[in-house]
Every structure is written in structure tokens, then in C-alpha cells.
Amino acid sequence: MSAVFDAADNVVKQHLGDTFPACSICVVHRHRYVMHAAWGWVDPETQKIKATTETYFDLASLTKLFTSMAFLTLVSQGAVGLDDPLVKVVPEFGALAPRPVEGGQDPHTKARQPVEPAYAGQRVDPSRVTFRHLLTHTSGLAPWRDVFNAAGAAPLPPTEEDPMPRSLRWARALEAICGYPFVGQPDGVVRYSDLGIMLLGEAVARLHGEDDLVPAVQERVLRRIYPRRPLYYNPMQNGIPREQIAPTENDPTWRKRRVWGEVHDENACGVGGVAGHAGLFGTAQSVADFGEHCLDMPRSFGLSAALRDEVLTLQAESDDQRRGLGFAFKAPEESSAGDLMGSRTFGHTGFTGTSLWIDPDARLVIACMTNSVYPGREYPGTFEFRRAVHDAIFAACDN
User: Fold this and answer.
1) 350 has which bridge partners?
2) What pLDDT, in 10s, does the model give residues 89-146?
3) What value, to the nearest 5°, has the Cα angle with vertex 285 and ends 279 and 289?
4) Nearest to 35 by CA among 60, 9, 58
5) Which residue from 42, 66, 43 is spatially nearest to 56, judged by alpha carbons?
């Protein structure tokens, strides 16, 4: 414990207060918790609330792993196939066909982007998009669109009740997503797409027999891992006090407030805090527990050994993006997982400053939670911190 903590502590303190105001890390090595610690402040300006190991962080895109795992349990049960078309479960996705190929939209500036020259003038039959395409981000769907504007006005702060039902927000969003142009063909090119996992979440809910994603993720993933339910969408609505939640960035344009106790991602917030791609909040230990269970997917989630092997087989690769089914693989160079974790390392990162990396050969799980978007989403240092802290922890473990 001491050597691992000292290694992480040295790196964290070089970034604390600059790259992020709060951090919590949980490390599981060879099925033992070798570190679980927290640093910093929930309220960096007043410094009255210390971050603890019980502080909840906005998991951002780590949510995608839970949505994907819920879907994989459905595959394992024979309810759906990886190569089934999305329209088999969400037929409205194919109502507008064929669809044009256009440029995407920048998630930061919201500006429209030009069409990729190789796809200019092309059209896409949406019935070609399969669930494998969604899981590997090879569907040709745009990485991002301002879905929140289609869903409705900005929700009220989490301390107040939103007058618009979450079901209505999502219905409006889904209608918009099913009409957006593509940015490419479903041809194996990796374009990391939030829209694709939002659609996957809708399919998970329907296949589970619900009109809501929450019970599907709870029953298929969370309850398999935790005796209680320590991960939540909309945490304040589930009894987690705001003082126990790490805030993220100030939003001066849409919500016009510091984002605290509600999901940072605009699209997830716009649809009521529950989406396939973002929305979950958890502690470092709750995320590490999930990672530990991912080391034995057949026992933990009921996946067949063959499906487990397919999940952890490289499915698509473009530039530095290497994708399995739902999971990202460590890039061969300049990975946010550092240089020392093994080549078979898998996991994911979250835009708010969170990450989960799992090295199956070293039997090492590192869940690192920060709120590095607190100073602003373009503030530097997160990538450098991630690389340094993962290398420091790996080196301190007896591998």
C-alpha cells in the first residue's frame, strides 16, 4: 500500500490545484486492493469540503462501458446478435433512407464541419448499421451533434424538479438522432461517436423490455457487482448530497451555472441525465470493482467464453484508435494508460477527467477519477497526468 500510494501521491500533487481540484484513485492488483485514496477539494475556492474516497465523480464516457456490458449480456442470452441491424430493434432509425453524408459538428465550438472529401456526394442506407458497428464506433454516424437543443430547454438545477419529463426529452432527442446525416459509411473506419452509443442505450432498454435504460443497466450490470448500488444516474435525485459530488466546469452559455450534481455532458443533461454514452456517477472504488469484474466476464456477467474473447479482440483500428467491443485498447504509443501497462490493456477514458484501465496479464486495475474540466474543458495537463500516474502505479506494483 505505501509504495503504491507514495508513487501516485507524488504525481497527483504535481497536478492538484492546477490540472484538477479533486482526485481519487483505486488500484486492485492480483485481486487485492492495494490503494484507495483521495486528494483535494470539492469546493476549491472555499476549501471547506475535502474530497474523500466516498466522493462521487461524473464518469462521463466510462458510462459507455456499462451500456455496452448490458448489451453484451443480451447477446449472451440470445436476445440479439452482434451483426443484427440496429433497425431490427429501433426501426425508426431506418425511416429516413437513404441519408446524405455531410460534415460533423465540433463538440466544443458547435461549429459545422466540412464533409470528408472521400465521402462527398455519397448516401447511406441506415439499415446497414449493425450493433457491431455501434460497439466499435465504425457506423459512419457523426461523432457529435447538439442533441440537447432538439431535446428541449436546459433542465433546471438538480435541486429543482424539471418541468419536462425525461421521457419526453429522450423522445425528442431520439427523433433527431434518427434523422441526422451520416459523416461516412459503415465501412470499418473508427469515428468515436456518442450518437452511436446513445442509440445502443435505446436498444438495450427495448431488448430488456423497458422504455428506460436505467433498470436495464441496474439489473444486467450493477446488481451483478454490488450488494448495494453505488453508481447512479442523477445522483442527487437518488439521495447523494451535492457536497459528496465533485463539480465540473462552469457552463455560462446553456445552463448558465457551475455544473455540480448534474451530468457535465450537454447531450446527456439535455435528455434528463440518463443516456447510453454518459450520465453515471461513481466513486473510484465502484469503478475499480467494475474493472475487476471485467477480468472474468463469464463469471461476473454471464458472457460465454467465446463472446468474452470476441469482446477483447481487436475489431477495428484507425490512427491511434483501437477498438474491441465496447472497450478501447491501449494505443501502442503515447497512450493515456502510460507506457508500462501491457499491450493487451483495455478500458476507457471519460472527458471529465476519469479513466479505467485494466491490464489482464498483470491482473492490474486502475480507476482514476478527477474533475479536470473544472478549470475549463480546454485546460491542459490531463493527458500528461494520466500517463505519469499510470506508469508510477505500475512501477510500484510487484509485477
Assistant:
1) 354
2) 999 999 999 999 999 899 888 899 999 999 999 999 999 999 999 999 999 999 999 9
3) 85
4) 9
5) 42
Going from N- to C-terminal start, the domains of the chain cover: 2-66+217-396, 80-211
What cell was used for 192? Answer: 468515436
* Cβ–Cβ under 8 Å, residues 146 and 106: no
C-alpha cell at 252: 455560462
Digit-coded pLDDT (tens) for 321-373: 999 999 999 999 999 999 999 999 999 999 999 999 999 999 999 999 999 99
Partner residues linked to 346 by β-bridges: 329, 358
Residue 364 exposure: Cα atoms within 13 Å on the Cβ side: 24
- The topology under which CATH files domain 2-66+217-396 is Beta-lactamase (3.40.710)
